[in-house]
Design goal:
Layout: H1 3-21, H2 25-35, H3 41-56, H4 58-68, H5 79-94, H6 100-114, H7 117-138, H8 145-151
């Protein structure tokens, strides 16, 4: 498993915990890494960046998700699913070196591991719609596939 996927999985676990208990981000990070003894520095760094960024931009991220989930209220979604969506949307918006297609693929791989087949399809549909919205707004496609390969 690559460093970035491991970091995304750690970030998902931290966001799950944040969603349930709402600690400060500092407390969340300290508690999580205190229990995860064996994590490389680059995994920790990227996971922390994803969590801090997602929590900081949570209202904007949730609004983008809400727009594309007509019949689903965000609080009613499974915790894993909504946090995978949040994590990927954060990457869409604030991680320009991560192609949006890579963020979607990573979210789907993690969903296959931690959620259900139906959830994977749901997540794919929502993320694809948000990706199209962003590309329409900016008139830009995601970075080229050769860059996507380097980021895995």
């Amino acid at each position: 498993m690559g460093v970035r996927r491991k970091a995304r999985e750690c970030a998902l676990q931290m966001l799950f915990s944040y969603d349930v208990t709402r600690p400060s981000v500092e407390e969340l990070v300290e508690t999580f890494w205190g229990e995860m003894a064996e994590a490389a520095d680059d995994v920790r760094e990227f996971a922390n960046e994803l969590v801090l960024g997602t929590v900081t931009h949570l209202d904007d991220i949730d609004e983008r998700i809400r727009i594309r989930t007509e019949h689903w209220r965000i609080p009613r979604m499974a915790i894993v699913d909504r946090n995978l969506l949040r994590l990927a949307v954060y990457e869409f918006l604030h991680q320009p070196n991560t192609p949006r297609t890579v963020a979607i693929n990573e979210a789907l791989e993690i969903a296959r591991r931690f959620s259900t087949n139906e959830a994977t399809q749901f997540i794919n549909g929502i993320l694809d719609a948000i990706k199209r919205d962003l590309e329409t707004q900016t008139g830009q496609e995601a970075p080229p596939p050769e860059l996507a390969h380097q980021l895995r």
